[in-house]
Amino acid sequence: MNNLSSESNRWMLRPDVVATVVNDGAVILDLRTKFFFSANATGWAIAQMFEMGSTRAEVHAASKHWGAVNGDAANIDAIIDQLIAEKLIETTAGTGVAVPGVTVSAWTLPTLSKHKEPLQRIMTSAFDPGLPLAE
Amino acid sequence: MIAAADSPVAREITYFCGPVSLALTFEDSSLQQALHGLLSQYDAPWPESRLSICATVTSRNAPVECPPNAGAFLALTRLKVDREGARLVSYGNLGSLMEYDMAAGEARFSVPENPDWPLLVEEVEQHFILLLARAWSQLGWTPMHGGTLIMPGSSRCVLLCAPSGVGKTTLTAAMLRRGWRTLGDDKTLLRKEGNTVVARSLAHRFHLHPNSSRWFPEAGDITQWPTYSRWTDKRVVRIEKLWPDCLAEHAIPGAVVQLLRDETGPALSVQPLDRIATLNTLLLQVAIPSDAEHARPLFSCVASLAANIRGAVFRIGNDAFADPKTAERIEAEFKKLLA
Questions:
Q1: How far apart are CA B158 and CA B138, in angstroms?
Q2: Chain B interface includes A116 (CB < 8 A)
Q3: Do B208 and B173 form a contact (C-beta atoms < 8 A)?
Q4: How far is A38 from chain B (nearest CA, A)?
Q5: Do A29 and B295 touch (CB under 8 A)?
Q6: Quick one: DSSP state of residue A5?
Q7: CA A30 to CA A87: how far, in whole Å?
Q8: Would you identify the CATH topology of the domain A3-101?
Q9: Any idea where the domains of chain A sit in the sequence?
Q10: Cβ contacts of A120 on chain B, cutoff 8 Å
Q11: What residues of chain A lie within 8 A of the CB of B165, using their CB?
């Protein structure tokens, strides 16, 4: 863990990161890099903690409330480290607000998978993003 | 000034483009004529126009300079687009400009003189496609570049995703002959309605390559139909003229197929897509802006769709439709996906 990810830092999802809930978790799209990620229900719950700003300790506390045990701490840290490494969250000077309504029905190990290919950064048109093949 | 065929008398014309009506005033009649093909293609009937946009298209001597960091909203090969509150500003490579006030429903196009008239027209076309894409999105629709095939006796459809030129239209024509229906060409609007995503058509015409007549003799001499772009030999064909009763107005997507061309492989090979690859296939067909507020509803619609449909990759070999069994096998695979 480096200084940037120290316990006391408060982290927040970047404003140009969007997410949408799907059946068993969420999909997160980084509009800057055009990479997208899929999170399971607990991975998404952790990511949601950063919508209003949270510290690493607050995420661990919330995870315990959701059913995590001490042995899960490394997995929770790994998700937070991945969010930091991918620059999906950034430090914020705010004091943070508890995130209302983040619930987890059954605790499982959190996952966050990055898809291997980004979406197009430059598109052909506002309706047909892909490049046409030569005929 | 743009080389005008007539004296610069303002021309007013209204186009109905799906749920959007576009009332245009052109200063230059030659530009109006050049854009007519694009703007008249959205001929699928819609019950009402829910958003009216008034736009003026004016000529100017000097190009508009694009600011160095433009393109924060959307970067296209010919345009850089920014948003300032409710106002979209789109800068063309040749110095054309489009400003769209999304709150007021007003747009202004400014077109400079340029010796390359076809290139200039194509740039202005891209401004119009942007304007319409944003207007459809304002109404809750997600524009998707993909074809549709509706299973006989059902409202469920397969979405066909591929870049232009891979063969979406050829495959669609092959299935229409087997009793499947379509919403139209590859310009489809999607919208979340409760737990379902519905698809609606915008255009009831195909862009069909003249070579297709060797597989579809009922199409006759396709070269008799008009061309639509200097970049391709494809012709604009009215679907109901060649395949009557094959058009529908809406459908429920139940599967997505990513089409690939396989120059050396068999006529058809099929591989399933997992959920993430299904989502990726759909996202690659939607122009999602880099602006979170405008990206969110499009992303949400596509992700909801991907979560509830099956996906597969179809690799189609060269001259695959010369053998009628290929279409038979494709139909069987489509039915498996929709089962």
A1: 26
A2: no
A3: yes
A4: 8
A5: yes
A6: G
A7: 9
A8: Outer Surface Protein A; domain 3 (3.90.930)
A9: 3-101
A10: 284
A11: 132-135
Look at B129 and A124 and tell me if their CB atoms are within 8 Å.
no
**pLDDT per position as a tens digit, B174-227:** 999 999 999 998 899 999 998 899 999 999 988 888 888 888 888 888 898 888
- Angle (nearest 5°) at CA B142 between B139 and B144: 145
**In this complex, which of B164, B209, B283 lies closest to A119 when CB atoms are compared?**
B283
Whole-number Å distance between alpha carbons of A130 and A133: 9
Sorted by where each starts, the structural domains of chain B and their CATH numbers stand as: 11-139 (no CATH), 143-338 (3.40.50)
Interface of B with A in 210-249 (CB under 8 A): 231-233
Provide the token pair at B278.
């299904």
User: What is this model's ipTM?
Assistant: 0.85
If one counts every other C-beta atom within 10 angstroms of the C-beta of residue B299, the result is 24
Q: Does B281 touch chain A (CB under 8 A)?
A: no
Residues 290-309 of B with CB under 8 A from A: 290-292, 295-296, 299-300, 303-304, 306-308
A130: nearest CB among B209, B284, B303 = B284
Tens digit of pLDDT for each residue in B246-274?
999 999 999 999 999 998 989 999 999 99
**Does A131 contact B261 at a Cβ distance shorter than 8 Å?**
no
Residue A106: what residue type? A
Token pair 């949408």 is found at A20
Flag whether residue A36 sits within 8 Å of chain B, measured between CB atoms: yes
